[in-house]
Amino acid sequence: MSDTKVPLVELRDIRVSFGGLHAVDGVTLTLNPGEVVALVGGNGAGKSTLMHTLAGAHPADSGQILVNGEPVTIATPRDARAQGIEVIYQKLALAENIDAAGNLFLGRELRTRTGALDDSAMASATRDVLKRLNPRFKNLNTPVKSLSGGQRQSVAIARAVHFNAKILIMDEPTAALGPAETAQVRELIEQLKSEGIGIFLISHDIHDVFDLADRISVMMQGRLVATVEKSKVTKDEVLAMIIMGQRPGGAN
Amino acid sequence: MNDSQTSEQHANDSGVLNRFRAFIASTEIDTRFAGMVIALVVIWTAFHILSGGDFLTSRNLWNLSVQSASIAVMATGMVLIIVSRNIDLSVGSLLGFLGYVMAMVQTRWIPDAFGFEHWYIWIVALIVGIALGAALGAVQGSIIAYGGVPAFIVTLGGFLVWRGLIFRMGEQGQTLSPLDGTFQLIGGGPKGSLGEWRSWVLGLLGCIGAIASIYFNRKRRRKYDLAVRPLPIDIGLAVFGCVVIILGIALIAVGYESPITGAPTGVAYPVVILIAITIGMVYLSRRRRFGRYVYAIGGNPEAAELGGINTRRTVMGTFVLMGVLCAVSAAIQTARLNSAVTNLGVQNELDVISAAVIGGTSFAGGIGTISGAVLGAVIMQSLRSGMVLLRIDSPSQDIVVGVVLVSAVAIDAALRQGKRRTAGIALAVGLVVAALIIQTGRQ
Ligand SMILES: Nc1ncnc2c1ncn2[C@@H]1O[C@H](COP(=O)(O)OP(=O)(O)OP(=O)(O)O)[C@@H](O)[C@H]1O
Ligand SMILES: [Mg+2]
Predict the structure, then answer these.
(1) B1 touches chain A (CB under 8 A)
(2) Residue A211 belongs to what domain range?
(3) Residue A230 belongs to a domain with what CATH number?
(4) Residue whose CA is at the smallest distance from ligand 1 atom 7
(5) Strand order across the A223-229 sheet
(6) In chain B, positions 64-103, which contact chain A (CB-CB < 8 Å)?
(7) B264 Cβ partners below 8 Å, 6+ apart?
(8) Most exposed residue of A49, A252, B194, B222, measured as fewest CB within 10 angstroms of its CB?
(9) Taking CA A233 as the corner, what is the angle to CA A229 and CA A238, rounded to the nearest 5 degrees?
């Protein structure tokens, strides 16, 4: 992580307010290729809101976003996707009445030459990605409504994998999962990381954070408390930052 | 001993039941749709018996097909609107207004400017109606989608506005008549049907279409190495489809001899239009992105938005489509009456919404099918025309339709939650009340 390298993503002085509430208040963050940056903080700290600005789900009021050093405008989810940004949302963004393939390709459907939906091609691609993520996944043709939390999560993650994300935002990806599925997601994060993908990981699980992250950014009441190298802090220090906003000695 | 026996028995029973369920599942038949077909068969049989054999005749079924057409056409559009969590209360008034305008084109505007009986009059009238329908649908749709005003309010306004405009145009409720001769064919009058051999051609095309769609679906899935239905089941479905088409044409369309010419009538033009629109709308809703997006919006508006779908444009599209379908139905109704009257389409919004809902469309959004709505319209019309045959007065008819509507939705809701007993109770209550009203309403 030398300073000469251009970061994959740079968020500069991002601000978002809802009415009078400053949900994100001047946050600056960077993410490098093949790096996992954990974003932690109490409930309502502004983690999801900050990531929404990068995902195009809710544009920032002010601030700059740079991808590979170039300033970009991300106003819609489509803009984000065009930059190779994929998101796994905290509140799973799936249409319950549509099957796994329909959800995986939602907004980016494969079509035949006549412009009709190519359901077979989508089903087959979905089957192939899901086989990688969750070998026991069988219910490809049933509406997502009848899937378990873990299976739904697989669909959301499969979306990011299939479309070759370069930048991945995971908002509490393991919150709804059992131990086996959580282990799978961790494995996947390691794998994606080794492929050079940059990952923003929002998590409340301090163990997850310490196992997976390279750097940890702590937010509190819309502000960035500090970003620290994982290797230079202890869990207790991070907890103190989350709860009291206390910076440890060596943080910038 | 006893205990183990009964439990064995149980296991056996559920084994057969499970195998039956697995069989049904492997045919991928929509069980809700199958249930509605059964309900329709029951209704038809009951009326046939009660009327002393007058219901299941070629003549009656042919009339039923024509009478169902205009509501069914609009119901296909209403499904998409309700699926995307909106509603359109304006369709009856919009139909009336569009019908009135199309009649004005034929009886006033073109004759005043260019004289009577031009071959192109019907085409101009139809194009004006459809274009105006699309435009007015776009007005309502854009206020809903871009203005953020609830559909209920916007279309309630439309309900009043379009009806009011008819009277403003109609100079104290004038009836416009007669309409252009070619235009009248759209309504399925004496000459407004395909005749014998063209009906058979239509049937043949239907069979080829059914077989081709099953074949190509199979081929596509094979290509991607996806599971396909067992071949005998696919063949069975194709044969079944063809038999239904052929029998329908033979018994209803060709079987009905025109009271004027004595020759076989064939499929009426409004029914041909309905078939074409149904196929088009099924294709649109299941095989095009637009349809997928409508369902996605109904299932989870937030997910649709985050998926990068232009939800506003999609919602607006459903209302434009509804306007076009209202114009088509307006053409069918005015052509059938050979006139436009000011109360054209009154209460049609209720029939159209009822047809969609009886056909399994859910107000919670995301659920509903085009074919179900068409069947819903046929069920509604069967009830009405059956009760007419039994000489039941029109207020009693309304009561029965109302009872059926509520019990149908209650049954559907109970089945969705797996409450079979509640569904059974709803069915029983609905049947008893309807039977009581029918019995006491006979004159
Ligand atoms: N759409 C919205 N409208 C109004 N206020 C909002 C909206 N979204 C978030 N907020 C507010 O912004 C603040 C930050 O919320 P955010 O969801 O970003 O928190 P978070 O850090 O992700 O919390 P959690 O850990 O609970 O997910 C909260 O006070 C929240 O109430
Ligand atoms: Mg959050």
Answers:
(1) no
(2) 9-98+164-244
(3) 3.40.50.300
(4) A18
(5) A85-88, A167-171, A198-202, A36-40, A215-220, A223-229
(6) none
(7) B195, B196, B199, B253, B254, B255, B256, B257, B258
(8) A252
(9) 100
pLDDT in tens, B109-134: 888 888 777 788 999 999 999 999 99
B297 with B84: CB under 8 angstroms? yes
> B117: phi > 0 → left, psi -120 to 50 → alpha, else beta; which?
left
Count the domains in chain A.
1
d(CA B41, CA B372): 15
What is the residue whose two structure tokens read 């994060």? A189
Average pLDDT estimate for A82-104: 91
Q: Is residue A190 part of a domain?
A: yes
Tell whether A63 is covered by a domain.
Answer: yes
| Residue whose entry in the numeric block shows the structure tokens 């239907």 | B206
Could you tell me if residue A108 is inside a domain?
no
CB atoms under 10 Å from CB of B382, counted, come to 21
> Each residue of A31-63: pLDDT tens digit?
999 999 999 999 999 999 999 999 999 999 999
User: Residue A103: its chain B contacts at CB < 8 A?
Assistant: 303
A25: β partners: A15
Q: Which of B366, B386, B324, B356 is nearest to B36 (CA)?
A: B356
CA dist A250 → A16, A130, A174, B269 (Å): 29, 43, 30, 83
Cis peptide before B230 (omega within 30 of 0): no
* The two structure tokens encoding residue A24: 């994100």
CA of A32 to the centre of ligand 1 (A): 26
Nearest to B292 among A89, A117, A127 (CB): A117
Domains with residue ranges and CATH for chain B: 54-192+276-387 (1.10.3470), 193-267 (no CATH)
- The Cα B335–Cα B184 span in angstroms is 4
Longest CA pairwise span in chain A (Å)? 63
Task: Choose among A68, A60, A51, A56: nearest CA to A15.
Answer: A60
Q: Which two tokens stand for residue B212?
A: 């081709």
- What the block records as the tokens of B350 is 């209720």
Predicted-complex ipTM score: 0.90
In degrees, rounded to 5, the angle at the alpha carbon of residue B93 between the alpha carbons of residues B88 and B98 is 110
A133 located within any domain: no
Burial of B314 (0-12, 13-18, 19+ CB in 10 A): buried
Q: How far is the C-alpha of A204 from the C-alpha of A172, rounded, in Å?
A: 7
**B363: which chain A residues are within 8 Å (Cβ-Cβ)?**
none
